[in-house]
Amino acid sequence: MSTYIADAAEDLTVEGPSATFTYRRIGPRGGVPLVLLNRVRGTLDWWDPEFLDHLAASHDVIVFDNVGTGYTTGTPRDSVEGMADGTVEFIEALRLPQVDLLGWTLGGTVAQHIARLRPDLVRKLVVAAANPGGQVPGAPDPNPKVRATMTKPETTGDDLVFLFFPETDTGRAAGYEHLARVATRLAAGRPDVSEAAAMGQIAAIQKDASIPFEQVRADLATIRQPVLYATGIKDAMIPALASYTAVQYVPDATLVAYSDAGHAFLFQHAEDFAGQVSAFLAD
What we know:
8 strands
């Protein structure tokens, strides 16, 4: 039997103008809720329950599926702007006057966009393993195997371990431990991300990558909220340089890096990173 509170969280729904959103909410109510934005091909079921439990020990944590993804109805979006609009629609449907955002990978890119365009809605921002936009100067060329694996119609557990964890004995072990923790939710045969939604997410990444970096730099300078950037030094998908570059242009930014971790450092070091997030969000 699972020992994670997150595994027992009830599926809730709320109506928005363009979708019926499905979400889960755990942790103590009160204060500013922490809304989590997910990765490419990620649904509610893919959030690591150990990480969620650590966050929810001291925060009101909300995870959801964006428009047309997983449990949520509607037409999938194919741009960062569209996914940001969907997130704002969800937050407003819950009648939340202000939130903190934690975005992982594509979710982090979307979260940065929301923070710029709706500063009234976002108090603090956590950006995990995400690109600030455009092509980061000096970034290494993408690994062709990463691109080929990421765009496969279906990804296996071995594929996810390759993409998200270092190719070391410790990294691979952490990857399979993560898969074991999420297996409780996934075993129920819950909704997956449709091919249309997945291709829309990949299209969003491609569009975002085409933005001139001069524009990205100017956009980062307009983010006025405190931002915690975090990265794994061995990230095969988004180089750590992306986070290091972003903090140079955001006026109030902090950087945390894990030397032995990759794209899913937040699950490999769930307790430590949840503690970093909690300390950052504390008033």
